[in-house]
Prior knowledge:
Number of strands: 5
Number of helices: 12
Helix content: 55-70%
Distance between the termini: 66 Å
Amino acid sequence: MLLGFAFYMIWDQFYWWGAREDYSFGYLVPLFAAYVIYDRWPMIRSYLVNGDAPGVEAAPSAPSSTGLTQLCEWIAYAAFFSGLGLFAIGALLRSVTGPQNPASLAIAAGFSGLLLSVVFIMTKERVDGQPMSLKSRLMLTALFMFPAIIWLISAPMVSVVEKEIRVFLLTKVTIVVFNIFDIIGYEIEREGNVLLLPEGQVGVEEACSGIRSLTACLFAGSFLASVFLNRFWKKMLLVAAAMGFAVLTNMIRSLFLTLWAYSYGSQAIDEHWVLPLVGDIGSVHDVTGFAILGFTCVGLICLLPVFNFSLKHYEAHPDELDATIEEQ
C-alpha cells in the first residue's frame, strides 16, 4: 500500500522537478530516501527481531496494553486517517485541475502521515509474536523520519507562502548589498529591488532571492544529518546551519554580481564564460548560482567531523595508560 502511494506521489512531483529549476534536486529524493532505508535496515531488522537496537540483548515481553501505549496508538490511528484524507484530497485536486502546489503539498503531507503511522501501528509485535515495548516502537518509527518528511521539501510550497519568503529575502538581499557598497564608498542608489550603478542598473530578481539554494541546501543538510549524525539536536543544528549557509553564500553571490556589474557594466552579468577546453559554461549569473550550492554542500560536509567530535575518543584506556607508565 505504501509503495503504491509513494509511486503516485513521485509521479505527481515529477512534473515540478522538471518544470522548475529550484526543485530539480527532487530527482535525487527517491534515491536518497531509499538509501537511508537501506542504510538503516540492520537497525530496522534488529528492532523487528529482537525488539531493540543492534548489540542490545532481546528485551523482555512488554505489557500488552498500557494507558500511554493506547494513547500513542490512538494518535497513530488519527494520523493514519488524517494522512489518508489529505492524500485523497490532493489526488482529487490533481486529477481535476492538473498539477498545482496545494495538491502536491497535500499528497506529500498525507504520505508522511501514512508512512509514520503505519510503521507504528504495524509493529505491535516482534516477528516471534512477542509484544514490542512502546519505546522500541517509537525508536523504530523515528528511523523512517527522513524518508517520510523529505517529500515536503521536494514538493512546491503554497504560492502565498513562497511569495512572502521570496519578497522577504529579496528585500533583505537588496538592503544588505546597498549598505555594504555605500559604506565602502561606491556610488550607488537604490530604488526598490533595483540598484542604480554608474554603468547601468542591477535588478535583484526572484532568482537572486536565495530561495532556490535554500530549498536545495535544506535537502542536502537533512540528508547529511540523517545519515551521519546520531543525535536529534545535532541533526536540527546541521539543518539550521544549512539554511544559514544558503542565505550567507547567496548574499556573497549578490555582492560579487553587483561588483562585477559595477566594474564591467550591468550587461556583463549575462555574458557567458568560455573556457579553452570546456567551452561555454554558462553566464556569470548562472555559474555563481551553481557555485554557491557546491560551496554550501562542502561546508556542511566539513561540519560533520565537528558535530561528531567526542572527547571520549581521546581518553586513554586504563590498560594503555598502565603500559605507558611501565615503558617509562
